[in-house]
């Protein structure tokens, strides 16, 4: 029943299956507070969204605890007033369990109630009560606060109705965030008539009702940072007019007198200013400031007590140290008288010994300085040698890179020469084939002579083209040979450089060993190239072909 009612008040869906599952293994009798708290936190409080009626929730909590804790002695306030005092206590109490209200907040609450009743505040009486309270405890519980207000100790001469109205006014301000309320006339938007309404100003809204019992609500005026309030001159027989401008609507209102008009304008303007600044309501901000001030004073008091304890402990330690020093001084004075005689006797001996040791120390220092200078010179020579070796190693690396690049260029030229030789061999075979075909053509019959003559002309043209290509290949081969010679010269220069660096490295006690390329067999290259025609052979063959051609014609 408790869980279902909590879910209903907090607008949380109730899950009876989860309830049965949570307490399924609990067969040890009634559930204690500690046993119920895990279920309350997990299945109810964690699901709360904040869209619930806090007064109804407080009333339910009051129902659960009032019967057991409320005093049985007669009080000057009703149970409803006691409930409101209990809710105010929860708002003003400290944030630690068990909840108590400190004397500063008790004074603040009693002042608010006294001002609401229209009576004078009795500061002296409260100071006596505060002194008596501080000697026994830090503050009051909720039920002790209810007994204090219900006893009439600070409301003597006031009837029950006046006290009840004062408690209700303070409850509206602190709990319901009611900043101001009262009857005023409002002009309608459609019928343009003036109707008396009960207005309630809260931090972000003005609600208006038919009467102050708040049962028949007629509408709301939503306030934000863009709203403004302006005083209006009297018109249409209405006085004490002012205007509330919002984004979508404008409201004309008439107060009962000029004082009420000014109070409402100031209250609404202050609320709009708080909305623009994003500040909480004045009573909540004042509570927070009082709490911060108490925390600051408490921290300062604790710091002062800590400093006093430290000073006291330091003073005691100083006293002990002074006593110890006094005793040590007396003993030292006695020892000093005895040691003075010994000191005078040994002073001459010490002076002689000190002179000898000083001379010996000077000689040792001079030797050490000479050794340090020698070591510094050796170190400088060693560092110079290391720098020379590093520079030599860098130059050797550059020479090896040049040799590697020369070998790569040699390999590229060798591949190019091989490709040119292969192409030249193919052309030579093709030329020989065409020559044999031409000889066979000459031996053919006269009937085919004309046809063969045409073919011969075509083949001669092809032969001419082949000859030009052969010459071109010959030129490319010569260029390749020249490139090869140039690469060979570079390789020889790189080898000479490498050899010279070998000698240099060998001279420096073999600190660096060169990485040498593997041996290669020398390649023999002729002027003609492998299987290539010489110019004389080509001229001889060309004269032979021309002679055969003249004979055939």
TrEMBL record:
<keyword id="KW-0966">Cell projection</keyword>
<dbReference type="Pfam" id="PF25530">
    <property type="entry name" value="EF-hand_SWAP70_N"/>
</dbReference>
<keyword id="KW-0238">DNA-binding</keyword>
<protein>
    <recommendedName>
        <fullName>Switch-associated protein 70</fullName>
    </recommendedName>
</protein>
<keyword id="KW-0963">Cytoplasm</keyword>
<comment type="function">
    <text>Phosphatidylinositol 3,4,5-trisphosphate-dependent guanine nucleotide exchange factor (GEF) which, independently of RAS, transduces signals from tyrosine kinase receptors to RAC. It also mediates signaling of membrane ruffling. Regulates the actin cytoskeleton as an effector or adapter protein in response to agonist stimulated phosphatidylinositol (3,4)-bisphosphate production and cell protrusion.</text>
</comment>
<keyword id="KW-0597">Phosphoprotein</keyword>
<feature type="coiled-coil region">
    <location>
        <begin position="283"/>
        <end position="504"/>
    </location>
</feature>
<feature type="domain" description="PH">
    <location>
        <begin position="177"/>
        <end position="273"/>
    </location>
</feature>
<keyword id="KW-0539">Nucleus</keyword>
<dbReference type="InterPro" id="IPR057837">
    <property type="entry name" value="PH_SWAP70"/>
</dbReference>
<dbReference type="InterPro" id="IPR001849">
    <property type="entry name" value="PH_domain"/>
</dbReference>
<dbReference type="GO" id="GO:0005737">
    <property type="term" value="C:cytoplasm"/>
</dbReference>
<dbReference type="GO" id="GO:0005634">
    <property type="term" value="C:nucleus"/>
</dbReference>
<comment type="subunit">
    <text>The SWAP complex consists of NPM1, NCL, PARP1 and SWAP70.</text>
</comment>
<keyword id="KW-0472">Membrane</keyword>
<dbReference type="GO" id="GO:0003677">
    <property type="term" value="F:DNA binding"/>
</dbReference>
<dbReference type="GO" id="GO:0030027">
    <property type="term" value="C:lamellipodium"/>
</dbReference>
<dbReference type="Pfam" id="PF00169">
    <property type="entry name" value="PH"/>
</dbReference>
<keyword id="KW-1003">Cell membrane</keyword>
<keyword id="KW-0175">Coiled coil</keyword>
<dbReference type="InterPro" id="IPR011993">
    <property type="entry name" value="PH-like_dom_sf"/>
</dbReference>
<dbReference type="InterPro" id="IPR057836">
    <property type="entry name" value="EF-hand_SWAP70_N"/>
</dbReference>
<dbReference type="GO" id="GO:0005886">
    <property type="term" value="C:plasma membrane"/>
</dbReference>
């Amino acid at each position: 029943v408790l869980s279902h009612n909590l879910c209903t008040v907090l607008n949380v869906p109730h899950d009876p299956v989860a309830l049965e599952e949570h307490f399924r293994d609990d067969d040890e009798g009634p559930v204690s507070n500690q046993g119920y708290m895990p279920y309350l936190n997990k299945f109810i409080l964690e699901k709360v969204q904040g869209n619930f009626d806090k007064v109804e929730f407080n009333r339910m909590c009051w129902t659960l605890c009032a019967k057991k804790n409320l005093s049985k002695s007669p009080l000057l306030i009703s149970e409803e007033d006691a409930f409101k005092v209990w809710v105010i206590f929860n708002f003003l109490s400290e944030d630690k369990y068990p909840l108590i209200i400190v004397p500063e907040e008790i004074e603040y609450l009693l002042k608010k109630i006294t001002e609401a009743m229209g009576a004078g505040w009795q500061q002296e009486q409260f100071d006596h009560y505060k002194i008596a309270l501080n000697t026994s405890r830090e503050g009051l519980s909720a039920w002790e606060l209810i007994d204090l207000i219900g006893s009439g100790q600070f409301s003597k001469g006031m009837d029950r109705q006046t006290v009840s109205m004062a408690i209700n006014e303070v409850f509206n301000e602190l709990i319901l965030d009611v900043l101001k309320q009262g009857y005023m006339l409002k002009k309608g938007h459609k019928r343009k008539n003036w109707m008396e309404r009960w207005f309630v100003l809260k931090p972000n809204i003005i609600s208006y009702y038919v009467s102050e019992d708040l049962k028949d609500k007629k509408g709301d005026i939503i306030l934000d940072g863009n709203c403004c309030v302006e005083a209006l001159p009297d018109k249409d027989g209405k006085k004490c007019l002012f205007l509330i401008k919002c984004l979508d609507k404008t409201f004309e209102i008439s107060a009962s007198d000029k004082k009420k008009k000014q109070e409402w304008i100031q209250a609404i303007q202050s609320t709009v200013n708080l909305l623009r600044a994003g500040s909480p309501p004045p009573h909540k901000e004042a509570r927070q400031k009082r709490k911060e001030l108490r925390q600051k004073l408490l921290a300062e008091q604790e710091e002062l007590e800590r400093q006093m304890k430290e000073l006291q402990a330091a003073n005691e330690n100083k006293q002990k140290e002074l006593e110890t020093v006094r005793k040590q001084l007396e003993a030292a004075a006695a020892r000093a008288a005895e040691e003075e005689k010994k000191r005078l006797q040994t002073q001459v001996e010490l002076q002689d010994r000190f002179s000898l040791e000083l001379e010996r120390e000077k000689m040792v220092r001079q030797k050490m300085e000479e050794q340090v200078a020698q070591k510094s010179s050796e170190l400088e020579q060693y560092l110079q040698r290391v720098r020379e070796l590093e520079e030599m190693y860098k130059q050797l690396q550059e020479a090896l890179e040049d040799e590697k690049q020369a070998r790569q260029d040699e390999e590229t030229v060798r591949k190019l020469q091989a490709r040119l030789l292969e192409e030249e061999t193919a052309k030579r075979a093709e030329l020989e084939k065409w020559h044999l075909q031409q000889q066979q053509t000459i031996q053919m019959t006269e009937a085919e002579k004309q046809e063969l003559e045409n073919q011969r002309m075509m083949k001669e043209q092809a032969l001419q083209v082949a000859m030009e290509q052969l010459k071109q290949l010959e030129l490319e081969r010569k260029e390749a040979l020249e490139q090869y010679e140039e690469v060979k010269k570079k390789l020889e220069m790189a080898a000479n450089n490498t050899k010279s660096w070998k000698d240099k490295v060998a001279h420096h006690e073999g600190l660096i060993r060169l990485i040498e390329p593997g041996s290669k067999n020398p390649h023999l290259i002729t002027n003609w190239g492998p299987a290539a025609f010489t110019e004389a052979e080509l001229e001889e063959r060309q004269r032979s072909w021309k002679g055969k051609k003249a004979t055939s014609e």
